[in-house]
Amino acid sequence: MLVLWSHIDRWRKILKGQQHGVVSLAKWRILNRLHDRNETLYYRVLIDNIEDFAPIIYTPTVGLVCQNYSGLFRRPRGMYFSAKDKGEMMSMIYNWPAHQVDMIVLTDGSRILGLGDLGVQGIGIPIGKLDMYVAAAGINPQRILPVMLDVGTNNQKLLEDPLYLGLRQPRLEGEEYLSIVDEFMEAVSTRWPKAVVQFEDFQMKWAFETLQRYRKRFCMFNDDIQGTAGVALAGLLGTVRAQGRPLTEFLNQKIVVVGAGSAGLGVLNTAVQAVSRMTETAANPQFFLLDKNGLITKERKDIDPAAAPFAKVPGEIGGLGLREGASLVEVVKKVKPHVLLGLSGVGGIFNMEVLKAMRESDSPKPAIFAMSNPTMNAECTAVDAFKHAGENIVFASGSPFENVDLGNGKVGHVNQANNMYLFPGIGLGTLLSGAHFISDGMLQAAAECLASYMTDEEIQRGILYPSIGSIRRITAEVGAAVVQAAVAEDLAEGHGDMGPRELVHMSKEETGAICYAKHVVSCLQPSCS
Ligand SMILES: NC(=O)c1ccc[n+]([C@@H]2O[C@H](COP(=O)([O-])OP(=O)(O)OC[C@H]3O[C@@H](n4cnc5c(N)ncnc54)[C@H](O)[C@@H]3O)[C@@H](O)[C@H]2O)c1
Ligand SMILES: O=C(O)C[C@H](O)C(=O)O
Ligand SMILES: [Mg+2]
C-alpha cells in the first residue's frame, strides 16, 4: 500500500500544474495497473477511497479513457463479441473461465456518455460500472463480466486510426444488428440464467428496442433509461420537499426537460407514472420537452413515437406565446419552470441567459439539473448556475463538481445526480431476489428508497442525494427495497441458500442486513487489513 501511495505522490509532483485531464488519466493508469497486478488490493483501495477514486475509474475520467482506449490498452479485460463471431457465441460464453457470473454490463459503444460513437473503446464503461458494482454492492469481482458487442463503428476517425482495436466496418443495422444481440442474450442466459444483464450506453433507437424486446424474457434492465429515471425522480421529489411543500405538489411542478433521448424520455415516462400514482383524476403534468430542434409540439413533423406522448398541444401553450420549435431561453422565460433538467449531452447549453431566466422561476427554490456527462458535456457548471440563477437554487450535475463558495461563509451544495446511486442496488436486489425479470414495481421501489433517504434538514440545505462516501449503505438499502418489491409481486425465487420462503418472512431491516453483508466478499470487508 505504501508503495502505491508514494507512486501516486510522485505522479502528483510530476503532474503539478498539468492539465486536469492529464492528471486524471495518469491516476487511472496507476489504478489500472494495480487492477491488473493485484485485484484484491485494487478493490480494497477503491472501497477505502471511493470519494477520491470514483471520479477516476468512473465518470468523468472514464470518458477520457474511452476516447483514448486503443492507445491506453495493455491487457484485455472482459469479453468482446464481434459481428464476425455470429454462430460462435454459445461456445465463447462457455469458454469464460469463471463458473458463475452474477453481473454483466453490456454496451455496443454507440453512445458513450455524451461523447458519441466510440466503437469498442466504449468497453471502459462496462468496466467502470462493474467496478462500482464491486465497490458499492460488494459483488464478487470474479463474478462480474464486462462485455462489448462489436458491430462496427460509424466514427470515421476511429476507422482510420491504425491503433483502433475494433472491427473496421460501419455499424450493423436492422435485423442483422438484432440477431447479434439476440444470440448473445440467448447464450448468456443459457449458461448463467440468474445473471443480471445491464444494458449501457446504447444509442437511443437500440436502447428502447432492446429493452422492449428483452425485459420480460431475460433478467435485464437499461441503466440509461431506467436507472437514470429513478435517480432523476428521486431528485425531482427532493426539490418539492426543498420548497417546503408536500409531495403531492409534484403534480403542479413545471419541469422543462432538455434532451429527448433515451435518458430524457426515461425520466419523463417515470415522472408521468409518479404523477398518475398521486392522483385518481386524469392529471395533466406540466412537462415541457425540447430536443435539438427546440420545443416539441404535436406540430412536429416526423415526431419520434417515443417523444410523441410529451409533445405539447399548440392550444395549450399558445397562451404562453410558445410555438413548435421554441428555443430553450424562450421556453424558460415564458414557462418560469420549477425545474430545468438537462440530458442533452450538449455542454454549456444552459448559458448565462438561460440561467438568468431561471431567476424568474415560479419556485422559491428553482432547481437546475445539468445531468449530461462527462464534465465538458454538462449543460452548465455549478459555479455558473449559482452565479447566474441565484444563491437559492438547488443544483445537481451528472459529473462531480466542487461545492461553490458563495461568500459570507455560505456554500452552494452540489449534488451528483448520477445513476450510480441506483444501478448497483437494482442489480444487487434483483440478484438476491432471484427474480427472472425486473418489474416496474422493483424499479419504483428503488427510486422511492433513494427519494426518502435524505432527511428534511438535509433537503432544506439543498442536499438531495447521499454523498458518494455512503454509496455502500444506500446501495444496500436500495437492494433491500428491490428484494422486498420482488417478494411482494411474487417474483422472488431466492438466491444461493436463501430460498423464497426465507425472503418472504424477512423484515425490511433483515433484508437490508442481508444485502449489506451477504454478498460482500469477505477479504474486502472494511475490517480486513
Ligand atoms: N447523470 C446520469 O446519470 C445520466 C444518465 C444517462 C445519460 N446521461 C447523459 O445524458 C446525455 C444524453 O444521453 P441520452 O442517452 O439521452 O442520449 P441521446 O443521444 O439518446 O439523446 C440526446 C438528446 O439530446 C437532444 N439534443 C441534442 N442537441 C440538443 C440541443 N442543442 N438542445 C436540446 N436538445 C438537444 C437530441 O435531440 C436528443 O433528443 C449524455 O450526455 C449522457 O451522458 C446522464
Ligand atoms: O455513466 C454515467 O456516469 C451515467 C450514465 O450512465 C451516462 O451514460 O452518462
Ligand atoms: Mg450510461
Structure write-up:
By secondary structure, the protein is α/β, with parallel strands linked by helices. The chain has 23 helices and 14 strands. It has three domains: 217 residues, Rossmann fold; 193 residues, NAD(P)-binding Rossmann-like Domain (Rossmann fold, 3-Layer(aba) Sandwich); 100 residues, no CATH class. 46% of the residues lie in helices and 11% in strands. The strands form three sheets. A seven-stranded mixed sheet has the order 8-7-6-9-10-11-14, sandwiched between helices. Strands 1-3-2-4-5 form a five-stranded parallel sheet, sandwiched between helices. It has a two-stranded antiparallel sheet with strand order 12-13. The longest helix is centred in the middle third of the chain and has 20 residues. The termini are close together. It binds nicotinamide-adenine-dinucleotide, (2S)-2-hydroxybutanedioic acid (LMR) and magnesium ion. Magnesium ion binds next to helix 12.
